[in-house]
Amino acid sequence: MPELPEVETMRRGILGAVGGTIVSLESCRCRRRPITIQPELSVIRRRIQGALVTDVRRVGKRVVLCTSAGFVVVEPRMSGLVTIAEPPTREHLRLRITLQNCALREILFWDRRGLGVVRLMSAAQLDELSRTRLGPDALEISPDELRHRLAGSRRPIKVALLDQARLAGVGNLYASEILHRARIDPRQECQRLTAPQWLLLHGAMRKVLQEAIRHEGSTLADGTYRNTLSQLGSYQAQHAVYDRAGETCNRCRRGTIVRIVQAQRSTFYCPTCQPAAIGKGNANRR
């Protein structure tokens, strides 16, 4: 589930590692599905042991630990957490990075479902990832570039927002929230959106993501996501539509929030606040 706000919260939570030295990298005993580690853990350990941590970045939905020996790129995927405190469960703990000469003693990677990926990359490999597999960051893209990258598509706008090669960082939860804030029907084809709608969409995207970061992300009913201190995020209390099917919309006080399925993912919206554009070729209608 971690999307841009959750991953940005993880990044900020381990900034205390900057200036520290990596003492060790070790795998934690876990009987669950193993995460993907590339290259082999022994190779990564040999390369980064003794390296200096120079920065902590976020690239889309990935946390990047920048070191003098390369870039440790952590992709949490569906259920991964980067933490510095006691994880939700010990049985799903995957990796431990021990540090010295900095504010943090260790960085842990925890993953309940085992879908996470940890890679050691060179500067060239990280640059290639950013250029060829990821679009501009959702918090950095301009209104004109957002429209340029998506407007030619016949896909529903909700589906297009999830395409990381076009726009990096937005996932299923925040796409629903962004479109509700912008008052855009999630089924509307990208090519049918008007210029004013693209501006509204861009503004809504920035506001929703920034608000979610301030609340340190969203912790859903399964309780999986936590910040780096193992505390719950609080943005779930601000959700306007996500996972609220059948409830009355808090904005218009008239519409009932609806759940539909788009590209095998749940979409939530208010038909009153986000009316279908008549004759605009909306896809995936109920």
How would you sum up this structure, described in words?
The chain has helices at residues 4-13, 41-48, 123-132, 143-150, 157-161, 172-182, 195-214; strands at 21-27, 36-38, 53-59, 62-67, 70-75, 80-83, 93-100, 106-111, 117-121, 258-262, 265-269. By secondary structure, the chain is α+β, with helices and mostly antiparallel strands. The strands form three sheets. Strands 2-9-5-4-3 form a five-stranded mixed beta sheet, sandwiched between helices. It has a four-stranded antiparallel beta sheet with strand order 1-7-8-6. Strands 10-11 form a two-stranded antiparallel ribbon.
Regions with little confidence, pLDDT below 50 for 5+ residues: 280-286
Average pLDDT value?
A: 95
Radius of gyration (CA) equals: 20 Å
Q: Main sheet?
A: 5 strands, mixed
N-to-C series of helices and strands: HEEHEEEEEEEHHHHHEE
Coarse shape:
globular
| Number of H/I helices | 7
Secondary structure elements and pairings:
Blueprint: H1 4-13, E1 21-27, E2 36-38, H2 41-48, E3 53-59, E4 62-67, E5 70-75, E6 80-83, E7 93-100, E8 106-111, E9 117-121, H3 123-132, H4 143-150, H5 157-161, H6 172-182, H7 195-214, E10 258-262, E11 265-269
Parallel strand pairs: 2-9
Antiparallel strand pairs: 1-7, 3-4, 4-5, 5-9, 6-8, 7-8, 10-11
Helix pairs in contact: 1-7, 4-7, 6-7
